[in-house]
Write a structure and sequence with these properties.
Strand content: 15-25%
Radius of gyration: 22 Å
Protein name: FAD-dependent oxidoreductase
Largest sheet: 7 strands, mixed
Organism: Paraburkholderia agricolaris
Bound molecules: flavin-adenine dinucleotide
CATH superfamily of the largest domain: FAD/NAD(P)-binding domain
Keywords: Oxidoreductase
């Protein structure tokens, strides 16, 4: 190994940043790596016109002062290596291998995209993807956008799109109105969240917010021009330039699975009260352990950082917003309760869980339809027979959709986890663990 760190943190979102800060304060040598050029993860993604703001600014300022913490931006984990090592590919350093005493996985979540007729037309993205594109500098001023799918991310996308000058034609939420209303009332228990929701939605003034509704088809000649929406028994068609449709998030457990960590039936990395996984020396925090928002991810990250550096979280609180020793576990329980309320309110209903027509493409990379995939008994067989999930995204999108529709378990991912230079792979050489 070229370099060794006491603790390596993978992912520089709210969980990873807090983990690195806590571990750094405890005196450990820490590497914090992320495949994005700038830290912040999904929610605090930086980009042109989106500079870092609080709380990211504060975290980065503290990390800068911690000389024992090394930030490694634009760095991807390509594969695990023998003896607590990782093979990395970095924009600056190329292929490198590093060793760790403890590893903290803070790899976040991915957006769940569900196919519908016409979803491969240019102009169709996920709702979170729209967020990322706008923060990355994509102009949407004057565009008519339909935001669809499910969950609070639709509201964040609404706010971002409007702030960027787009005209949001409608927000189409699959959850039924009574569940959404009940969730809205429950926000009275979290006044900060309620204020945030009111600010982001502007009280839904000037925008249609349709509950119990689902996108059925994107139409257009070479690009999205219209969208058909199912509202109860009615179908309506709206003119639009863009559709941003995402059905919540799916924990990113790729690295955890490859390391042999136990994964729950819900697809989350299983952790104990100190954020330790089932594998010795590997901890996990944030949305890879369950989708719950930035506050929960941050608290879990801090607990993981303290735990990995040998400081029990119940014995010290270092979080800037927490004041007493038991606060970390208390805060985690609070945000876990909030996460449960979100999960209940925005649980996918039958309309979203039902596959579209057989002719609809399920795998965009390899052009495989729903009908071709459903003919096989499991994911592995479907992959082997149809090439579904074997394209550029390696089943990250269609695998989650097939899992939802057909109840299939995805096979454990095999490295390399993303395209890598041949020199990087050869450099790993004898350090690579044996494959099956
Ligand atoms: C596309 C998308 C957009 C979102 N936008 C918002 C939003 O605007 N507002 C909001 O409230 N919530 C948003 N969310 C929800 C958001 O995920 C959480 O609230 C919060 O960011 C979770 O923090 P985290 O630290 O667990 O993970 P994340 O913030 O997701 O951070 C995980 C980081 O790990 C990196 N990573 C993963 N695997 C590897 C690897 N192998 N090698 C290197 N780096 C790796 C990822 O690139 C990412 O930067 C979004 C989610 C998604 C998927």
């Amino acid at each position: 190994m070229k370099q060794h760190f006491d603790i390596v943190v993978v992912g520089a979102g709210p969980a990873g940043l807090n983990a690195a800060q806590a571990a750094g304060r405890a005196g450990a040598t820490v590497a914090l790596l992320d495949d994005n050029p700038r830290a912040g993860g999904q929610i605090w993604r930086q980009g042109p016109g989106h500079p870092s703001q609080a709380p990211l600014q504060g975290l980065l300022a503290t990390l800068k002062m911690q000389t024992n913490v090394t930030l490694m931006p634009s760095t991807r984990v390509i594969a695990p290596l023998r003896a607590r090592g990782l093979l990395l590919e970095s924009a600056e350093l190329g292929g490198v291998s590093i060793g760790y005493g403890q590893l903290i996985l803070a790899t976040g979540a991915r957006e769940r995209l569900l196919p519908f007729a016409g979803w491969t037309l240019p102009g169709v993205t996920g709702a979170g993807a729209l967020q990322a594109l706008i923060k990355g500098g994509m102009p949407v001023r004057g565009e008519r956008i339909v935001i669809a799918g499910s969950g609070p991310l639709l509201i964040a996308a609404l706010a971002t799109a409007r702030a960027a000058g787009a005209q949001v034609v409608a927000v189409v939420e699959q959850a039924p109105s009574f569940e959404v209303a009940r969730f809205g009332i429950s926000l009275l228990a979290e006044p900060a969240k309620l204020r945030q929701a009111v600010t982001m939605t502007r009280g839904f003034a000037g925008v249609r917010y349709w509950t119990g509704s689902i996108v059925r088809q994107a139409l257009g000649d070479g690009r999205v021009e219209r969208v058909t929406i199912q509202r109860g028994r009615r179908q309506l068609t709206l003119a639009c330039d863009r559709i941003a449709c995402g059905y919540g998030l799916v924990p990113n457990t790729t690295l955890a699975q490859a390391l042999g960590c136990a994964i729950s039936e819900a697809g989350q990395i299983v952790v104990d009260s100190e954020q330790r996984t089932s594998v010795d020396g590997v901890l996990a925090a944030g949305e890879c352990t369950g989708v719950g928002g930035a506050e929960l991810a941050g608290v879990e990250g801090e607990i993981a950082g303290l735990s990995a550096s040998g400081t029990p979280a119940s014995g010290a609180s270092t979080n800037r917003s927490l004041a007493n020793p038991i606060a970390l576990h208390t805060q985690r329980a609070r945000w876990q309760r909030f996460a449960t309320r979100v999960e209940t309110a925005f649980a996918l209903q039958a309309a979203a869980r039902t596959p579209p027509d057989d002719a609809t493409l399920l795998c965009r990379c390899e052009d495989v339809s729903v009908g071709e995939v459903r003919a096989w008994p499991d994911w592995r067989e479907a992959k082997l027979q149809t090439r579904c999930g074997m394209g550029a995204c390696q089943g990250r999108i269609c695998g989650a959709a097939a899992g939802l529709y057909f109840g299939w378990q995805a096979a454990a991912p095999r490295p390399p986890f993303s395209p890598a230079q041949i020199g990087t792979l050869m450099g790993a050489g004898a350090e690579a663990p044996p494959t099956e």
